[in-house]
Design goal:
Ribo_hydro-like; Nucleoside hydrolase; two-stranded antiparallel ribbon; 22% strand; alpha/beta; 308 residues
């Protein structure tokens, strides 16, 4: 590990323990894994947490950020309420979170872990383009190689969206055009890592933060098991782990582009509805680091990073 601590800003749509609003069931829990993993690492300083809409409402995300920082952080971490909807090019305005991030960037170089829609990051880049030089890297959960690389959940035909990208395509374009270093941790890599009931039992025997996480992960795990999966893929924690231990994450430099293709979220798609895809390969205007696999023994390293 590096001797010097990394300064990380987390931008997240925390949803741990919240019920879905658009359909029955519970929201994703993996953002909680990512935040707690960084909290536990002594080579990381979390400079701030900004919340954003996404897996849940901005109010829920902010509430969870407050709980985590107040109950489980060993040092003071400021947290802020950010964008409640996708970027509107006709009305780009700062919010509490983007003002705080911009102020931090004025005198500090930061890496940003953006594990929700990238709306807050895009607002800062549009309102304060001079601050782009102080963003060392933005690490996001998004992208795929081909439009037919579906995000399959279990064995019963359920597909997940490329949610962070789907909810705000324009925010990604803003980041690419700003020329900041972008690292993508897509479904391709997270689909190779599983959290099972055995893992939750280990977390439940650990500290209070992990007990909270394990308790709220049970309903999420059951939803995946009902879809025929062997566990659940902890999407966001692959991105946080890349920041902690990049040697455990296999990556390559690719070119990225946005293209319209048939919407893979619509079964059969009789009306031929389309959507934007973030595609990474040999062709494209924007260079990205694309994470695609994990090193041998990764699962044990992941659990140890949470339970140490």
């Amino acid at each position: 590990m590096n001797e010097q601590k990394q300064n990380i800003w987390i931008d997240t749509d925390l949803a741990v323990g919240k019920k879905r609003t658009h359909k029955p069931g519970y929201c994703d829990v993996d953002d909680g894994y990512a935040v707690l993993q960084l909290l536990k690492n002594d080579q990381i300083t979390i400079s701030g947490i900004s919340t954003v809409f996404g897996n849940t409402s901005i109010e829920n995300a902010y509430e969870i950020a407050a709980d985590i920082c107040d109950k489980y952080a060993t040092y003071e971490i400021p947290y802020f309420k950010g964008a409640e909807a996708a970027l509107d090019p006709q009305k780009v305005e700062h919010n509490e979170a983007t003002l705080a991030l911009a102020e931090k960037l004025k005198n500090n170089r930061l890496k940003i872990l953006a594990i929700g829609p990238a709306t807050n990051v895009a607002i800062v880049l549009l309102k304060n383009p001079e601050l782009a030089k102080n963003i060392e890297e933005v690490v996001l959960v998004a992208g795929r190689r081909k439009p037919t690389d579906y995000f399959n959940i279990g064995s019963k035909g359920n597909r997940a969206p490329d949610l962070n990208f789907d909810l705000d395509n324009l925010a990604f374009e803003v980041m690419f055009q700003a020329g900041i270093p972008v690292t993508l941790c897509p479904f391709e890599i997270s689909s190779k890592v599983w959290i099972t009931d055995e893992d939750l039992q280990k977390l439940a025997k650990s500290d209070s933060a992990n007990q909270w996480l394990a308790n709220h992960s049970e309903a999420w795990l059951n939803q995946w098991l009902e879809q025929g999966a062997q566990g659940f893929n902890p999407f966001d924690v692959l991105a946080s782990h890349y920041l902690i231990a990049p040697e455990l994450i296999k990556s390559e430099m690719l070119s990225a582009k946005l293209e319209l293709h048939l919407n893979d979220q619509i079964p059969e798609n009789p009306n031929q509805q389309f959507k934007n895809y973030l595609l990474c390969g040999d062709e494209g205007l924007y260079k990205v680091k694309y994470c695609f696999d994990v090193a041998d023994g990764y699962h044990q390293a992941l659990i140890e990073s949470l339970t140490k």
